[in-house]
Amino acid sequence: MSENSEGRREEAQKIKESASQTRDVLKQHFNDLKGTLGKLLDERLVTLLQEVDTIEQETIKPLDDCQKLIEHGVNTAEDLVQEGEIAILGGVGEQNEKLWSFTKKASHIQLDSLPEVPLLVDVPCLSAQLDDSVLNIVKDHIFKHGTVASRPPVQIEELIEKPGGIIVRWCKVDDDFIAQDYRLQFRKCTSNHFEDAYVGSETEFIVLHIDPNVDYQFRVCARGDGRQEWSPWSVPQIGHTTLVPHEWTAGFEGYSLSSRRNIALRNDSGSSGVLYSSAPTYFCGQTLTFRFLLGK
Description:
Number of helices: 3
Structural class: alpha+beta
Order of helices and strands: HHHEEEEEEEEE
Radius of gyration: 43 Å
Number of domains: 2
Low-confidence stretches: none
Mean pLDDT: 81
Number of strands: 9
Shape: elongated
Helix content: 25-40%
């Protein structure tokens, strides 16, 4: 009874922890989404306001120039009229001199040449075109954004130790979920960072370069057919291997070893001999593959 009670408490605690973590993920995601959307809307508003400023400046400048030219012509004409009136009121000698000056200035001024004022219908009238249907489009996407699942659609099924590696097998637990790709990650239990080991359509992968007698965590997720986002991660599974990685013994003539000494290649030496492994790392039931490449 005590074991069953303890098991139920652990399961209940697991549900509470996963629910709390899911709440935090949802809140963080939607807060980030609101911040990003607000920033994008602000940037778009600034762009449109800058376009209004540019159009306003470009279209009002010719009108301002026209107004200044008209005012300059009117002021010049007023000055010339005043000068003519003064010339008429002066003495005979002074009058002739001022009339001559007035006539000379008048001949150089085109009082009847003023810029044409554009028609009111030809003057630009700014407006904003805003499509309210974008709200319905965004609303539809938001209402469909995100899902909550009671369990991940894939789970790790089996961990099989190999020399210097672990075979990880996983399977779907949601029959309605159509998987396009799977993603496998692993980490040492002492590490805080998962790293990718495999992405593809297979449901099995051997993770190599595993330190013997060290616990590793493995997790897998899937991407639905035609989707871009990945599903929630499976429950992490802990595995380890007690089998050390296979190594060939160095120092035999006629063979060159890779940096990890797990691959042996015949070299150009004419000598031949037997190649030995450094330890009996393979046992009955395990597979050792040899590949022979023939030179020309």
